[in-house]
Amino acid sequence: MFQEFYTQRGEYVVISAEQASHFAKGVAGDYNPIHNPDARRFCVPGDLLFALVLARFGLSRHMEFRFTNMVGADTPLLFSETDNGELEVRDEAGKCYLQVTRRGDRTYDASVIDAFARCYVAFSGKNFPHYLKPLMEEHGVMFNPRRPLVIYDSMGFSLERLDGISPGLVLTHSSLDVQGKRADALLEFAIQSGGEPVGVGSKKLVVSGLCAYDADEMAAIVDEFYRLKAAYLASVD
After folding, report:
1. Burial 50-76 (b: 16+ CB within 10 A, else e)
2. Is 43 left (phi over 0), alpha (psi -120 to 50) or beta?
3. 141: three-class secondary structure by DSSP
4. What span, in angstroms and rounded, lies between the C-alpha atoms of 218 and 169?
5. Where on the tree of life does the source sit, at the highest rank (predicted)?
6. pTM of this prediction?
7. Contact residues for 176 (Cβ-Cβ < 8 A; gap 6+)
8. CA atoms in the 13 A half-sphere facing the CB of 142
9. Residue 213 DSSP SS3
């Protein structure tokens, strides 16, 4: 699963800027410029690390993911399990980028893992403008339009069962806790299968460099988002 988005070099996984950008746009629908290969502050999407963890270690009924650093292009990454059963993603120098705790039943069924990973990533890729723009507008704040910074902090979920599910995610509640120049955004979601609830989860984002909300500036950012989306879709037709 997701093999086209990384290269295996011995025990390490290496993700190029092009692979990461293709995942962000093609799988997550995420057109954040920070995932463009030529971005000055390029970083690998956290959702790609999430998907690779599930592909390698299976899907557990209860999982918590904490992102501790941003991954640059071509960084050799080691996906490992610690003595206490936690999962980690570290580089050659030992710097940690992702910590995962898990409990409960586990499945290694590739079709279930692939379906769950893809439905979550598609939901997660809608951070902006779908979820964040209304929150920022409501609170009268926005990120710096010349240097937008939204950091993926953490996510977690609990599933009632792992077998016989065809998952889909629905946003159930969102909130923004503004603290001076930064804010914590919490996105809560329901996990459904065939219209029936099978789990719940949440995702936390940190928005930095806040300034007063400017409708014109925001409109220009949203227009650029859809321009980038149209350009990508035209390139893969």
Report:
1. bbbbbbbbbbbbebbbebeebbebebb
2. beta
3. strand
4. 27
5. Bacteria
6. 0.93
7. 135, 136, 138, 139, 141, 183, 184, 185, 186, 207
8. 21
9. coil
Residue 213, both tokens: 């909300």
Placement of tokens 């929150």 in the chain:
135
The structure tokens 């710096």 sit at 144
* Pair 213, 169: CB distance under 8 Å: no
Q: Counting every residue, how long is the chain?
A: 237
Buried/exposed 28-39: b ≥16 CB within 10 Å, e otherwise: bbbbbebbbeee
Query: Distances from the Cα of 56 to the Cαs of 20, 48, 92, 148, 237, in angstroms?
Result: 18, 12, 19, 32, 31
Helix (H) or strand (E) holding 123: helix 110-124
List of residues 6+ apart from 219 with CB closer than 8 A: none
pLDDT digits (tens, 9 = 90+) for 214-234: 999 999 999 988 998 898 888
Distance CA 226, CA 237 (A): 16
Task: Tell me the pLDDT tens digit for each residue of 125-148.
Answer: 888 899 999 999 999 999 998 888
With H, G, I as helix, E, B as strand and everything else as coil, classify residue 41. coil
Q: In what side-by-side order are the strands of the sheet with 7-9?
A: 7-9, 12-14, 77-81, 87-91, 96-107, 59-67, 149-159, 196-208, 182-193, 167-179
